[in-house]
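Write out this protein's structure.
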Amino acid sequence: MAAFTLTSLLCALVPGPGTLIAARVLQGLSAAVMTPQVLSLIRAVFVHERDRARAVGA
């Protein structure tokens, strides 16, 4: 989460489009690293299948 936050800040502060593209790539990579953690947390917290499906859908 810290990496995503830092790369988001980097995206806001970059001076040009080339640097922005590179920062967005890093931001996407950090988001991809967080995805399995979020999905496993949803699976652990929401016991009923219907609630879990709603949480994943949101």
